[in-house]
Design goal:
Elements (H helix, E strand, L loop, with lengths): L1 E6 L2 E2 L3 E2 L6 E2 L2 E6 L4 E2 L3 E2 L4 E2 L3 E7 L3 E2 L4 E2 L3 E3 L3 E2 L3 E2 L4 E2 L3 E4 L2 E2 L3 E2 L4 E2 L3 E4 L2 E2 L3 E2 L4 E2 L3 E4 L2 E2 L3 E2 L4 E2 L2 E3 L4 E2 L3 E2 L3 E2 L9 E3 L2
Parallel strand pairs: 1-5, 2-6, 3-7, 4-8, 5-9, 7-10, 8-11, 9-12, 9-13, 10-14, 11-15, 12-16, 13-17, 14-18, 15-19, 16-20, 17-21, 18-22, 19-23, 20-24, 21-25, 22-26, 23-27, 24-28, 25-29, 26-30, 27-31, 28-32
Length: 193
């Protein structure tokens, strides 16, 4: 069952969820990736989604998911963020996927919590990417990503594998993270292929 589904080629104004539609019990699917995309800002601060989340977006102003909670799988597929994309304090309780996303402005995942496997695949970060104090409970994979102006994992915690296979780092790449306590289920491994 879909609680909210929206398929448009363009949205002329700010799209906000925090006031009035801040809690979604079922699945949430957004498709606003046409040539127009979202002309204004996307405000999903504090949004709580109980079911699966799927988004295909083109946002021309700031996109903010600060303190949002995704209790099931969250997938941001082929999203284009022209201005800053903010996921500060966001909680992904299960698998989080970002396949083929483009971040033209800063990508801010500071203090985000990734509870399951995290996959950024074929993403392009044309500005800085910050994962300061982020927590990765499961493995985190950054496959074939391009970091044009640098990426920082300062104070980030890793409970599983950190894989950056076939990724390109044009700017500085800082990996001074800390390890989540190791168990048999989450050995500490970094793959820098």
């Amino acid at each position: 069952e879909v609680a909210f589904q929206h398929d448009l080629s363009a949205w002329e104004d700010t799209l906000g969820f925090a006031s009035g539609l801040g809690f979604i019990r079922n699945r949430l699917q957004l498709s606003l990736s046409g040539p127009g995309g979202i002309e204004g800002e996307l405000r999903a601060d504090g949004l709580i989604v109980e079911g699966r989340f799927m988004a295909v977006l083109r946002v021309k102003r700031e996109a903010s998911f600060d303190d949002a909670v995704f209790r099931d799988q969250a997938r941001f597929e082929r999203c284009s963020f022209v201005w800053p994309a903010r996921f500060v304090g966001c909680r992904f309780e299960r698998k989080a996927e970002f396949p083929e996303c483009v971040f033209n402005g800063p990508a801010d995942f500071d203090r985000a919590v990734f509870g399951g496997e995290t996959v950024f695949a074929n993403c392009v970060f044309l500005h800085t990417a910050s994962l300061y104090d982020a927590t990765f409970v499961g493995s985190a994979f950054f496959f074939q990503c391009i970091f044009d102006r640098g990426v920082s994992f300062a104070s980030a915690a890793f409970g599983g594998v950190l894989g950056v296979r076939e990724s390109h780092f044009e700017g500085a790449a800082a990996f001074p993270g800390r390890a989540v306590p190791t168990t048999d289920r989450n050995p500490q491994t970094v793959q820098l292929d």
